[in-house]
Design brief:
single chain, 217 residues, alpha/beta, 7-stranded mixed β-sheet, 6 helices, Protein-L-isoaspartate O-methyltransferase, cytoplasm, SAM-dependent_MTases_sf
Amino acid sequence: MMGDDDFQHQREQLIRDELPQLGIRDEAVLQAMMSVRREDFVDDKNREFAYRNAPLPIGFGQTISQPLIVAYMIEALQLAPHERVLEIGTGSGYAAAVLSRIANEVLTVERHPKLADSARKRLKQLGYDNIRVFQSDGTLGLPEHAPFAAIIVAACGPCVPPPLLQQLDLGGRLVIPVGEKQGSQKLIRVIRRDENEFKHEELGFVHFVPLVGEAGW
């Protein structure tokens, strides 16, 4: 049975040693990940693997993303402490917890009711009081709460969902995997330059579960 000291040692090894060697340089992201106990966001049977740099199953065909990918996507958002973030794909709540240690407020959407409920309870129990969990079709965003300084999508769409683009603030950043359900996928960053002007950048190849919903698959 692993104890808190074991997890702390593994967390430091992953975040202070491994992730910087893999290209993560943003100190705010590394500090946020250090402050979030990933072992609290995985099933008991997978707890001992919490600090492997790998995705882990969380049920309903979903996963808690690989720590490197979480760090890379959050780093790409270029967050400032005063900003509000929209996350699509709450899952276990891990990435929302990391985001909440950098941003002022995180709104996160999960389409699976049971995952949304468990994430909401978990985050409340752990004291993450600047996160709000919503259960709905994430591809449509949360127009009633827009605009957002940053939007992060933890599933792959066939394209960038138009409703999410419209919910970006001017100067806002959106990071999302785009591509085929099971084939080639690219991580894209979109920056809103003006009302109808968006800059698209390719950040590399990734592999995510499909983004299911009205504006996704």
